[in-house]
Amino acid sequence: MPHDHSDHPHALLPPDPALRVKALETILTRKGLIDPAALDEIIDTYQNKIGPQNGARVLARAWCDPAFKEALLADADPVLAQLGYYGRQGEHMVVVENTPQQHNMVVCTLCSCYPWPLLGIPPGWYKSDAYRARAVREPRAVLADFGVSLPEGTRVRVWDSTAEVRYLVLPMRPDGTDGFSEDQLAELVTRDSMVGTGLAKTPEGTT
Q1: Distance CA 121, CA 117 (A)
Q2: How far apart are CA 51 and CA 179, in angstroms?
Q3: Is 112 a catalytic residue?
Q4: Residue among 6, 64, 113, 128 flagged as catalytic
């Protein structure tokens, strides 16, 4: 007879991913394998302290402060360290600037190296085999999938992150932002624009 999978432990978990995670958390907590308070602290850290807002603040400052921008592009590590952005997955950072002549895009073809202190946890698509393969082979097609259409004369350069070096894209500052504060500018810097699969938002909220 075919094996009946109804008695398998996974069959007891609900189909919805969020509910499955909650069910697993409950089981592990009851077994004493995890501490809910510690888990909440980790979640809070990645939601509110480590995430794209960190990178956005750095790049907004670069838009406002030419000397800071020059130092960031020349040697990012000491500049970022002074701001408190360093540590695991944040070592050996290189910031590359988008210009009308060149658009930069970041990928990790071997695994999913990503600047966690500046961007938080990498999105699922960044880790996918499809993105990792196509970003190098057909970057303009990948950009089109993200809704980004570049002028024909703009070159696309793909940077391959590794355990030795990680890249962060400095997008072009949107038009119409003269007089904006750093906080206002930071709101225009998106995670995708710092990976190069998107552009910074315009003041009207479109890219």
Answers
A1: 9
A2: 26
A3: yes
A4: 113
The DSSP call for residue 114 is -
CB 200 within 8 A of CB 190: yes
Give the pLDDT confidence of 87-137 residue by residue, as tens digits.
Answer: 655 578 999 999 999 999 999 999 889 998 899 888 999 999 999 999 999
φ and ψ at residue 59, rounded to 5 degrees = -75, -30
For residue range 81-101, list pLDDT tens digits in order. 999 887 655 578 999 999 999
Residue 50 in tokens:
């480590």
CA distances from 85 to 22, 27, 156 (A): 31, 35, 28
Enumerate the domain spans of the chain.
16-48, 50-195
Runs of H (alpha helix) within 84-181:
116-119, 124-127, 129-137, 139-145
pLDDT at 5 over 50: no
User: Which H or E run includes 60?
Assistant: helix 52-64
Q: Catalytic: 64?
A: no
- Superfamily assignment of 50-195 in CATH? Nitrile hydratase alpha /Thiocyanate hydrolase gamma (3.90.330.10)
The single residue of 111, 128, 149, 181 carrying the catalytic annotation is 111
